[in-house]
Amino acid sequence: MEEEFEVAEHDGDIPVLAVRGEIDVSTAPELRDRLVQINQRGTTTVVVDLSEVSFLDSTALGVLVSGLKRFRSAGGDLRLVVTGRSVSKVLEITGLHEVFKIYETAEAAVSA
To answer: How far apart (Å, rounded) are the C-alpha atoms in residues 30 and 91?
Structure first.
């Protein structure tokens, strides 16, 4: 049984989007919309917590990279929380582990 895709936002000085399930062509637009909404509120830095993500495809990577560009162009950042081997492996294979700031916990990402 596949996990239900879910994006929960935790407010604070730096909002945290906690994503659960699989991020693919059918679910990535929801993540993109949430990132755009946060950016449009004038927030310049966001944390995307991928610690409960079991799978992400190229569509998901595209959403994360475009989000990163959007936040960095506003003088901020998009930080990732990655604990799962499958997600970290995808980031390493694509070289994106060199592009994103990656943390082990949302707390560490927020306080960085």
So the answer is: 20
